[in-house]
Amino acid sequence: MAKNRIILLCLFFLLVIPTISAQNISIDYPDEVEIGKEFQIKLQLIDFESGTYDVKIDMFGDGARIARILNNGVWKSTVYYISEAIESGQEEDFTMKIESYVGNINFEVKIRESGSETKYLIFGGYSLISKDSDTLQEWQEPENQIDETQEEPESVNDKNTNGERSVQLTGSAINDEDKSNIIYLNPKDIKTDENFKSEAKGKNTIWAFALFCIALILLFILKKVNDVRKNGIK
Predict the structure, then answer these.
(1) What 8-state DSSP symbol labels residue 30?
(2) CB atoms < 10 A from the CB of 199, how many?
(3) C-alpha to C-alpha distance for 126 and 207, rounded to whole angstroms
(4) CA pair distance 128, 22, nearest whole angstrom
């Protein structure tokens, strides 16, 4: 009888644990954002059971919540879930903004079965950087000025009394051919493989749970073996 129970437990864990560990998310988000400006987080559920799920994207800076998320047309704190926000296998965009915090931001994603208060998974370890508009402008201006300083001036004003030449460029000073060589950079529009992260985390906790369950099974087996030996000695 004891052997049958052990076999059933082993079969249960062999069937259930792989299903749990397969649940994952795919998430894309910018490395840098500007405070007060909206940005998007793309989220997809992978290998979840069919149905709708609530989503919570909780962002922290220096231990405090510093972001808002657009929830049914209303900006709300990230302490709240967005109910019935996503279905398994589908990709959804979530609009967020940083209120006033500048610096490194850590955040986690919680996925909860709609209608449940206890069944949820946590995916953490994500981070991004928030900057104010002045910082982004200082970073952007040298890039925008590269082509202007290299252009040959169409009109030159040499009326400076100190002998310095004053160059004035107008819209007509750049012909169509020159315009094709100008690259206007905006840090929010630059998208490379490094700017967006596609990660799927959460397996470590699940595997730790699996190892813990296996350890319990082994202890249960050893206990039964010891009981059998004691009964045999008697």
Answers:
(1) B
(2) 14
(3) 20
(4) 26
CA distances (Å), origin 42, targets 30, 122, 154: 10, 16, 47
So what's the pLDDT on residue 181?
A: 44
Residue 177: count of CB within 10 angstroms of its CB: 7
Helix (H, G, I), strand (E, B), or coil: what is residue 81?
Answer: coil
Compute the distance between CA of residue 127 and CA of residue 197 in angstroms, rounded to an integer: 10
Whether residues 74 and 144 share a domain: the answer is: no
Residue 42, in any domain of the structure: yes
Same domain for 46 and 27? yes
DSSP 177-226: HHHTT-----TTT---TTTB--B---HHHHHHHHHHHHHHHHHHHHHHHH
CB contact at 8 A, 109 and 202: no
* Interatomic CA distance for residues 54 and 87, integer angstroms: 9
Tell whether 234 is covered by a domain.
Answer: no
How does pLDDT run across 35-72, given as a tens digit for each residue? 999 999 999 999 999 999 999 999 999 999 999 999 99
* Same-domain status, 123 and 150: no
Q: Based on the structure, what is the number of domains in the chain?
A: 2
Q: Which domain CATH number covers 219?
A: 2.60.40.2550
Does pTM surpass 0.70? no
- Which residues neighbour 104 within 8 Å (Cβ) at sequence distance 6 or greater? 61, 127, 128, 129
In this structure, the answer to whether residues 74 and 106 fall within a common structural domain is yes
Residues 57 and 166 in one domain: no
Whether residue 34 is found in the same domain as residue 109: yes
